[in-house]
Amino acid sequence: MNKRISFAGPSITDREIDSVMDALKNGWYENYDMHVKKLEKTFADYLGVKYALATHCCTQALHLACAAIGLKEGDEVIVTDFSWVATAYAVAYTGAKCVFADIEPETWTIDPDCLRKAITEKTRAIMLVHTFGHPAGMDEIMKIAKENGLYVIEDAAPALGATYKGRKVGTFGDVACFSFQGAKMAVSGEGGILVTDNEEIYERAKLLSSMGRTDSEAVFWSDMLGYQYTMGNLAASLALSQLLRVEELMKIKRDIFGWYEQGLSSAPGIRLVKEKEGCKSNYCYPSLLLTDEIVADRDEIISGLKALNIHCRPAFPRMSRFPVFEQRYENPVAALVERRGISLPSAANLNKRDVSFVCESIKRLIG
Ligand SMILES: Cc1ncc(COP(=O)(O)O)c(C=O)c1O
Q1: What residues are paired with 364 via a beta bridge?
Q2: Which domains are delineated in the chain?
């Protein structure tokens, strides 16, 4: 069997090993949160925002973001229909209703026109995703939010390093969240971080992330129903060492996408998801859509690739179809991507020859 071509996986160097060893040796006693604090400060500085709060995973950061802006039962939040379910469940945890909007065919990010049409008098916020590292259309989204007095939460889980018109994603909305889960741009095993310029959102998220503990009436006193969502030094030390290599990690992903572009551009019926003009994607998960020119079934193609030890992912099923949500939506673009979209391997250990093998195998399988 040939080398496993993994869907995703990190680049780990001596820098990461040294950083984790440092946390293991020194991150205790009076230094119990030293690496966490350093990660938060470095992350905030990197993005150019005032506050960052590290969490055990991005789902928790998203939940804190939703709770910190005060979402509750009776509120509506417009959510992209195409994402990992954490995006929508974070909203649902607060009791607010998810109203699912369709996506743009070019970037698979929320379509601003659909978003606008979904607004009602109950709408309180927009939950967008910079899907697979492609920036959402922030000019239009922020304009809609401003006109309608809505909060904007950026789910930037896979989008570290991506920019929209020269500005880093995660700096547009009221609050944004990134993931350090093992398949993301920068990893810490599991991990997440919430960022904001809004002091009130930050303070509330921070309190909620540590069990609502205020010590106000007594040591260990808690003033609200909070959660244990904080990150520890070991994970933070790994995330930090990866963050310090973000440009290098992004280059790895962008090179891989460039090889896919070379290898698949001549293939009929394949539409690669490419960055829009003025945007820089981190190409966290290079993806393609099979057009009608290709008769082969998407899942059969993925199985055929798996038999060659090439590990792809089908596109997400639309979240609005999950039993948790009561209302059904058509959202035709997301419905098409759900059926015909594939995310390609982009693990950091792939070389040009591996990607070329993937491209040739895809071309063979689609006939
Ligand atoms: C768009 C999106 N949002 C949220 C998450 C959740 O991140 P985590 O696994 O760190 O909780 C993910 C993870 O895959 C994601 O892709």
Answers
A1: none
A2: 14-243 (3.40.640.10), 246-366 (3.90.1150.10)
Ligand 1, residue 183: give the atom nearest the CA: 14
Q: Ligand 1 pocket, 229 CB below 6 A?
A: no
Does the reported pTM lie above 0.90? yes
- Check whether 27 has a pLDDT greater than 80: yes
- Residue to mutate (ligand 1; options 59, 82, 128, 194; most atoms within 8 A of CB): 59
Please tell me if the CB atom of residue 310 comes closer than 6 angstroms to any atom of ligand 1: no
Please list, in sequence order, all residues whose beta carbon lies within 8 angstroms of the beta carbon of residue 245, skipping any fewer than 6 positions away.
Answer: 11, 13, 15, 186
CA 86 to ligand 1 center in whole angstroms: 6
Spell out the residues 6+ positions from residue 179 whose beta carbon is closer than 8 angstroms to its own: 57, 58, 157, 158, 191, 192
> Residues 244-251: what's their mean pLDDT?
98
Angle between helices 233-243 and 246-264 (to 10 degrees): 60
Question: Which residues, including other chains, have CB under 8 Å from residue 303's CB and lie 6 or more apart?
Answer: none
